[in-house]
Amino acid sequence: MTDAGMSWRLPILTLILALALTAAPLPPAVAPFRPDWVPLILIFWSLLAPERFGLLTAFWMGLLLDTLSGSLLGQHALALVVVIYLTIKFHLRIRVFPIWQLSMTVVLLLALYEFVLFWVDGVAGRTVPLTERWAPLVSSALVWPLIIAYLDRYRHDAQVRV
Amino acid sequence: MSAPGGTGSDLVRGGTSLSFRFILICIVSLALMFLDHRESHLTTIRQAFSVVVYPIQLAVDLPIRGWRWTQMALAERAELLAENEALKLEKLDAGVRLQRLDALEAENRRLRAMLDSSARVADRVLVAEILAVDLDPYRQRFTINRGLGDGVYVGQALLDADGIVGQIMRVEPLTSEAVLISDADHALPVAINRNGLRTIIVGTGDTVRLRMPYLPNSADVEMGDLVISSGLGGVFPSGYPVGYVSEIERLPGQGFAEIYVEPAAKLDRAREVLLVWTADAEVTSNRAEDSTNLAEAR
Question: What is the rounded distance in angstroms from the CA atom of residue B227 to the CA atom of residue B202?
Answer without folding.
Answer: 13
